[in-house]
Each structure stands twice: as C-alpha cells, then as structure tokens.
Amino acid sequence: MSKNRLYIGLAAVFILLAGFAYIIYNGRPVMHLAQENLAQETTSTATNSSENPTEVPSQAGEGTQTASTSDTYTLAQVQSHNSQQSCWSTIDGNVYDLTTWISRHPGGPQAIIGLCGTDGTMAFHQQHGTSRRQAAALALLKIGTLAL
Amino acid sequence: MSNYSQPLLRYGLVLLFLWFGYQQLVNPSAWVSFLPEFLGYIPVPGEMIVQMNGWFEVVFALLLALGCYTRLIALALGAHLLGIAAIAGGAIGMRDFTLSIACFSLSLAVPDAYTYDSRQKTAQPIKQAQSSQIS
Fold first, then answer.
1. Do A104 and B40 touch (CB under 8 A)?
2. How many CB atoms lie within 10 A of CB A4?
3. Which residues of chain B are within 8 Å of residue A133 when distances are taken between CB atoms?
4. Residue A19: its chain B contacts at CB < 8 A?
5. What letter would DSSP give residue A115?
6. How far apart are CA A46 and CA A43, in angstroms?
7. Of A5, A13, A50, B121, which sits most exposed with the smallest number of CB within 10 A?
8. Cβ count within 10 A of residue B53
C-alpha cells in the first residue's frame, strides 16, 4: 500500500469523525434551546409595547394574560399546540415539543398524538414508570417549564 | 466503449450518494420519518442521526469519486443501502436493493483506469523498475 493512499484514507477518516463531532455539537438540545430562547427574546423585544403585559388584569373566563418568559409557557400556549404539525405536552411541570418524536416513538405515533396539547404526566408514567431510558429521551425534547 | 462502463457506474453511484447525502444534511427534518423504530430507544435526536448519515454518504461518495479504496468503499455503501432496503421495504426497499447490487458489482470488479487505486498500481511497477535499474 502506498503512503499517499494511506494518508488519503487517514484524512478521510479524520474528516468523517470531525463532521460527526460538528453535527453532534451543533445539534445538541441545549444549543437548540439556547437558539430558541434567543429568537424569542429578539421577537419579544421587537414587538414590546409601552404597556407591561404582566400588569394586564386577568378577566374571568379569558384565562391568564401574563406573558411568559423565554422558557416558561402557560397551559393555554401548550393547548394551542395540539396537532401533528406542532405537538406540545406538559409532563411533570415541564413543557416538551413532541413533534419530531411522533414518527419515532417505538410504541407508534398514536400514543404521542393523543398527548398533543394536553398534560401527559399520567399517561407517561403509567406507560413508562420510572424508566431512565425513556426519561433520558424525553429530556432531549424539553423546551421549557410550565407557568403556574 | 466498454472502458467507460465501469466509470459510468461509479460516477452514477457517486451522484446518487452525493445528492441524498446533501439533502439529508440541509433538510434533516424531511428524512426523520424514514428512520426505523428501534432507533427510538437511542436518546439521540432523529435529525442528528439523519445528518450524520448524510455526512457519511457524502464523504464516502467523494472517496468513490476519487477512486481511492474503491472496492472497500463500494462494499460499504452497498451494505449501507442493503440495510436501508431491509428497513424500508416496499417499492423503496426494492429500489435500494437493486442499487446495493450495483454497489456490490462495483466492489467485485477491478478498479477502472480512472481511479486513484489503478494509477497507484501502475506507478508502483514503474518505480520498482527504475529502482532496479539504478541498483
């Protein structure tokens, strides 16, 4: 085997592994959450009015009108994401974006579709108990916490 | 004309893997639905898996285009396609199965004259002859 051929092979392996490392680094959930937080902060800054939204009194029958922070969502916001195109659920006080998980759920998509826009705490624990594997997979989908 | 059949097959496969690899890199969300269910047990985002698969296909396609380790690369890509065919099934699986057969065919053949492998093989006897003349 010539040395040049060996060097090319080693360079290809290095490039392959470097690409994997770059994809993993950029695709980690913390990075996505940080980017989404930054995008939300930018949007809220651009559309901020003179009135402070948190001071608007909530009226009976209209639900809460307090604005959420960058990673805190109200139940009304979770309920508005109730389709396969945008599927949110709240489990144990945390909010998760399950949209990309619908087609990858080992138990089939229907189990996830049924959680869209709802509190999935009971269903999740009934099905998975305290399994660490499912909890680890769920943690990757977390986008924030539920506002009380 | 027969001298061009193998390069034609090789560059056709290069285009195939380059295109699909690039598509998976730039738009991974469109390919997540093709992932098999057993990958759901791995706590890795589906889009990340798709992008890594796309990068693998791009790098190996470039190596195949260069013609370095041609037979090994063709064998690896054929096995890769065979796995995808087994998982996909149906019409897509049949198409990928036939493409994997094309890759295996390339891996069984001697690298054509346009590959880096064949140029290295022809260069080595020349160097050996020159070194023997000098000695």
1. yes
2. 12
3. 41, 43
4. 52, 55, 59
5. T
6. 5
7. A50
8. 21
Mutation to test the A interface, candidates B63, B117, B121, B127, most A Cβ within 10 Å: B63
Closest CA to B109 of B8, B16, B1, B18: B8
End-to-end CA distance of chain B: 42
Place of tokens 């592994």: A17
| pLDDT tens across the length of chain A (148 residues) | 578 889 999 999 999 999 999 998 887 655 555 555 556 566 666 655 444 444 334 443 333 334 444 688 999 999 999 998 899 999 999 999 988 888 777 667 788 888 999 999 998 988 888 777 678 778 878 888 998 7
- Complex ipTM over 0.85: no
Q: What are the residues whose beta carbons fall under 8 Å from the beta carbon of A112, sequence distance 6 or more?
A: A87, A98, A101, A102, A105
Task: Report the run of H or E that residue A14 belongs to, with start and end.
Answer: helix A3-27
Coil vs helix vs strand at A118: strand
Contacts of B124 in chain A (CB under 8 A): 2
Q: Identity (one letter) of the amino acid at B14?
A: V
Per DSSP bridges, beta strands A88-91 and A94-97 are antiparallel
pTM above 0.80, yes or no: no
Partners of A11 on chain B (C-beta within 8 Å) are none
Minimal CA separation from B135 to chain A, in Å: 21
For A47, A95, B104, the CA distances from A53, given in Å and listed in that order, are 12, 22, 65
CB contact under 8 A, B39 and A104: yes
Angle, CA of A62, A118 and A129, to the nearest 5°: 145
